[in-house]
Amino acid sequence: xxxxxxxxxLHDADRDGLIDIRELKxxxxxxxxxxxxxxxxxxxxxxxxxxxxxxxxxxxxxTMSLHHKWMIRxxxxxxxRYVVPPPRPLxxxxxxxxxxxxxxxCPPPLTMVIFSIIEIIMFLVDVIYFQDDPNHNQRLGESTNxxxxxxxxxxxxxxxxxxxxxxxxxxxxxxxxxxxxLIIQIFLGIALELVHHWWRVxxxxxxxxxxxxxxxSLTSPRIFLAGASGGVYALIxxxxxxxxxxxxxxxxxxxxxxxxxVFCFTDLGTxxxxxQTDQHDQIGYIAHLSGAVAGLLVGIGxxxxxxxxxxxxxxxxxAVIIYFALMTTGIIVHIFVPDYFPKAEYN
Length: 347
Fold this sequence. Notes:
Helix content is 63%, strand content 0%. By secondary structure, the protein is mostly helical. The protein folds into two domains: 5-102, EF-hand (Recoverin, domain 1), CATH 1.10.238.10; 110-340, Rhomboid-like fold (Up-down Bundle), CATH 1.20.1540.10. The chain crosses the membrane at residues 110-130, 165-191, 198-217, 223-245, 252-273, 285-303, 315-337.
């Protein structure tokens, strides 16, 4: 009611406490109804003028505002916008969900799909190679003597063929080994690539693969290595890295973080337990662990950070320094301490 009294005083041009037809027309125009016909204004005045004196006093004006709320509503909105400043987000401040809004399908997320197709082709090459061999009695795809496996597997006796530190990711022992890696790397890789683009995801994946072979070679120098598990674990911990760096910008960040942590610790713990208790277990858990560490460090280093905070700059430098220190140490040991490793075979 106080607002109605204020409006009446504002549009009472002759200060007589009454609103005539001319003043009512101005009031309606102020309410953003500029094209209302004059006869409509007269009808509104006539219906609201209960004493038929051709003017509206305050009581009549107040009653009119109750029956014609559309007339006052726009004026009130304009008044509020003028008096109350619009909220302005702080510079660099992003609401929850800003991370998800960065997702884009241009360019299409095909990096992990391409890697997966190559891995499938290499697997099929070895399967087809042995399909007509009567002496081959191993289950589907479990032989490492095929042409692709022989060329690409990490062979500790052929470390001088340096491509094997990466190419072993194209070799898989058994259909289940292949399928599990493909499913995880496609789903996790595409989710990362939608936000961080193909080259960052490729760096994380290859860094995990390289760290897997490097770590295995240093800790178990006589172990052969096959599969992309190092790269897969790198993608898993890269998700943890991006959650840490974009925590405030992500929806349900704590739920995602807990899910990935539980998965990592459960799977790694199971792998270590089986390796220690089953003498026939051939899962290279060091490759898993090394790939996970690389994915976390490289993920912090190369994945997008939507809002860089001071502590995140320090974390970035720590991650980059640790990763390069570990990789440099591994390379130096391989080059300058050859006696630690099995004697090379050049056949």
